[in-house]
Amino acid sequence: MLLDDDQQLRYSRHLLLDEWSEAAQERLLNAHALVIGAGGLGAPALMYLASCGVGRITVVDPDTVDLTNLQRQIAHTTARIGQPKVLSAELAMAELNPGVQVHAIAEAADEALLDTWVPQAQVVLDCTDRFAIRQTINRACRTHGVPATLTRPDGQHLRFPGCFRCQKRNTECRSPT
Length: 177
What we know:
By secondary structure, the chain is of the alpha/beta class.
Protein backbone atom coordinates (compact mmCIF):
# COMPACT_ATOMS: atom_id res chain seq x y z
CA MET A 1 0.00 0.00 0.00
CA LEU A 2 1.33 3.40 -0.93
CA LEU A 3 0.27 6.60 0.76
CA ASP A 4 -2.24 8.52 -1.33
CA ASP A 5 -1.79 12.25 -2.04
CA ASP A 6 -3.88 13.35 0.96
CA GLN A 7 -1.92 11.06 3.29
CA GLN A 8 1.38 12.30 1.82
CA LEU A 9 0.34 15.85 2.65
CA ARG A 10 -1.22 15.08 6.06
CA TYR A 11 1.84 13.17 7.28
CA SER A 12 4.45 15.23 5.41
CA ARG A 13 6.06 16.46 8.63
CA HIS A 14 6.62 12.86 9.71
CA LEU A 15 8.06 12.01 6.31
CA LEU A 16 10.59 14.86 6.54
CA LEU A 17 12.23 13.18 9.53
CA ASP A 18 15.37 11.19 8.71
CA GLU A 19 14.23 8.47 11.10
CA TRP A 20 10.81 8.12 9.45
CA SER A 21 9.80 6.69 6.11
CA GLU A 22 6.70 6.09 4.07
CA ALA A 23 6.90 2.42 5.14
CA ALA A 24 6.94 3.49 8.80
CA GLN A 25 3.87 5.67 8.25
CA GLU A 26 2.12 2.79 6.51
CA ARG A 27 2.84 0.55 9.52
CA LEU A 28 1.30 3.22 11.75
CA LEU A 29 -1.74 3.47 9.48
CA ASN A 30 -2.16 -0.31 9.76
CA ALA A 31 -1.64 -0.38 13.54
CA HIS A 32 -4.29 -0.94 16.19
CA ALA A 33 -4.07 0.74 19.60
CA LEU A 34 -6.34 -0.18 22.51
CA VAL A 35 -6.86 2.73 24.89
CA ILE A 36 -8.43 2.04 28.27
CA GLY A 37 -9.80 5.33 29.60
CA ALA A 38 -11.02 8.45 27.78
CA GLY A 39 -10.64 10.94 30.61
CA GLY A 40 -7.83 13.22 31.73
CA LEU A 41 -5.11 10.80 30.64
CA GLY A 42 -6.84 9.09 27.73
CA ALA A 43 -8.37 12.12 25.99
CA PRO A 44 -5.07 13.73 24.93
CA ALA A 45 -3.53 10.32 24.14
CA LEU A 46 -6.46 9.55 21.83
CA MET A 47 -6.11 12.88 20.05
CA TYR A 48 -2.39 12.34 19.47
CA LEU A 49 -2.92 8.77 18.25
CA ALA A 50 -5.53 9.96 15.77
CA SER A 51 -3.51 12.95 14.59
CA CYS A 52 -0.34 10.93 13.93
CA GLY A 53 -2.26 8.34 11.92
CA VAL A 54 -2.75 5.23 14.01
CA GLY A 55 -5.21 3.49 11.71
CA ARG A 56 -7.44 1.72 14.23
CA ILE A 57 -8.15 2.86 17.75
CA THR A 58 -10.37 1.03 20.21
CA VAL A 59 -11.33 3.12 23.23
CA VAL A 60 -12.92 1.68 26.36
CA ASP A 61 -14.52 3.78 29.13
CA PRO A 62 -17.85 3.43 30.95
CA ASP A 63 -18.14 7.10 31.99
CA THR A 64 -20.04 10.05 30.53
CA VAL A 65 -18.82 13.59 29.86
CA ASP A 66 -19.39 15.95 32.78
CA LEU A 67 -18.88 19.71 33.00
CA THR A 68 -16.12 19.12 35.56
CA ASN A 69 -14.14 17.15 32.94
CA LEU A 70 -13.80 19.96 30.44
CA GLN A 71 -10.85 21.83 31.96
CA ARG A 72 -8.53 18.87 31.30
CA GLN A 73 -10.19 16.36 28.97
CA ILE A 74 -9.52 17.90 25.58
CA ALA A 75 -11.47 15.41 23.47
CA HIS A 76 -14.77 16.51 25.01
CA THR A 77 -16.88 19.64 24.61
CA THR A 78 -19.72 21.40 26.38
CA ALA A 79 -22.12 20.23 23.67
CA ARG A 80 -21.29 16.60 24.52
CA ILE A 81 -22.01 16.75 28.26
CA GLY A 82 -23.98 13.64 29.19
CA GLN A 83 -22.71 11.58 26.25
CA PRO A 84 -20.53 8.54 26.79
CA LYS A 85 -16.88 9.63 26.80
CA VAL A 86 -16.02 7.03 24.19
CA LEU A 87 -18.57 8.48 21.73
CA SER A 88 -17.42 12.01 22.45
CA ALA A 89 -13.81 10.96 21.86
CA GLU A 90 -14.82 9.13 18.68
CA LEU A 91 -16.39 12.34 17.32
CA ALA A 92 -13.31 14.39 18.27
CA MET A 93 -10.97 11.94 16.55
CA ALA A 94 -13.16 11.81 13.43
CA GLU A 95 -13.08 15.61 13.22
CA LEU A 96 -9.30 15.60 13.63
CA ASN A 97 -8.55 12.73 11.24
CA PRO A 98 -11.43 11.13 9.33
CA GLY A 99 -9.10 8.37 8.08
CA VAL A 100 -8.87 6.75 11.51
CA GLN A 101 -11.24 3.90 12.37
CA VAL A 102 -12.50 4.17 15.95
CA HIS A 103 -14.32 1.48 17.86
CA ALA A 104 -15.97 2.90 20.99
CA ILE A 105 -16.83 0.58 23.86
CA ALA A 106 -18.88 2.28 26.59
CA GLU A 107 -18.18 -0.38 29.22
CA ALA A 108 -15.83 -0.92 32.12
CA ALA A 109 -12.77 -2.92 31.17
CA ASP A 110 -12.85 -6.32 32.81
CA GLU A 111 -11.00 -9.58 32.19
CA ALA A 112 -13.45 -10.81 29.55
CA LEU A 113 -13.38 -7.55 27.58
CA LEU A 114 -9.60 -7.37 27.77
CA ASP A 115 -9.22 -11.00 26.70
CA THR A 116 -11.22 -10.13 23.59
CA TRP A 117 -9.53 -6.85 22.66
CA VAL A 118 -5.91 -7.03 23.90
CA PRO A 119 -4.86 -9.75 21.39
CA GLN A 120 -6.16 -7.60 18.53
CA ALA A 121 -3.95 -4.62 19.41
CA GLN A 122 -0.28 -3.88 18.81
CA VAL A 123 -0.16 -1.75 21.96
CA VAL A 124 -2.39 -1.06 24.96
CA LEU A 125 -2.46 2.36 26.61
CA ASP A 126 -3.51 2.17 30.24
CA CYS A 127 -5.06 5.58 30.86
CA THR A 128 -6.93 4.57 34.01
CA ASP A 129 -6.73 5.95 37.50
CA ARG A 130 -7.42 2.86 39.61
CA PHE A 131 -4.84 0.34 40.74
CA ALA A 132 -7.14 -2.68 40.47
CA ILE A 133 -7.90 -2.16 36.77
CA ARG A 134 -4.23 -1.46 36.09
CA GLN A 135 -3.42 -4.88 37.51
CA THR A 136 -6.11 -6.48 35.31
CA ILE A 137 -4.76 -4.72 32.22
CA ASN A 138 -1.24 -5.79 33.14
CA ARG A 139 -2.31 -9.43 33.44
CA ALA A 140 -4.12 -9.35 30.09
CA CYS A 141 -1.15 -7.78 28.33
CA ARG A 142 1.23 -10.33 29.85
CA THR A 143 -1.08 -13.21 28.95
CA HIS A 144 -1.40 -12.11 25.33
CA GLY A 145 2.14 -10.80 24.88
CA VAL A 146 1.05 -7.30 23.94
CA PRO A 147 3.16 -4.35 25.11
CA ALA A 148 1.46 -1.82 27.34
CA THR A 149 2.06 1.76 28.32
CA LEU A 150 1.16 2.99 31.75
CA THR A 151 0.06 6.62 31.78
CA ARG A 152 1.25 8.64 34.73
CA PRO A 153 -0.85 11.49 36.17
CA ASP A 154 1.47 14.00 34.47
CA GLY A 155 0.58 12.49 31.09
CA GLN A 156 3.89 10.71 30.51
CA HIS A 157 3.56 7.25 28.98
CA LEU A 158 5.91 4.59 30.27
CA ARG A 159 6.22 1.61 27.91
CA PHE A 160 6.57 -1.87 29.32
CA PRO A 161 7.31 -4.81 27.01
CA GLY A 162 5.90 -7.18 29.61
CA CYS A 163 4.90 -6.75 33.22
CA PHE A 164 4.84 -3.21 34.55
CA ARG A 165 4.60 -4.59 38.06
CA CYS A 166 7.98 -6.29 38.00
CA GLN A 167 9.28 -4.50 34.86
CA LYS A 168 10.40 -7.71 33.17
CA ARG A 169 9.53 -9.12 29.77
CA ASN A 170 6.58 -11.51 29.62
CA THR A 171 8.93 -14.47 29.26
CA GLU A 172 10.94 -13.49 32.35
CA CYS A 173 8.13 -12.39 34.64
CA ARG A 174 7.32 -14.62 37.59
CA SER A 175 4.81 -12.24 39.16
CA PRO A 176 1.50 -13.91 40.10
CA THR A 177 -0.55 -10.88 38.97
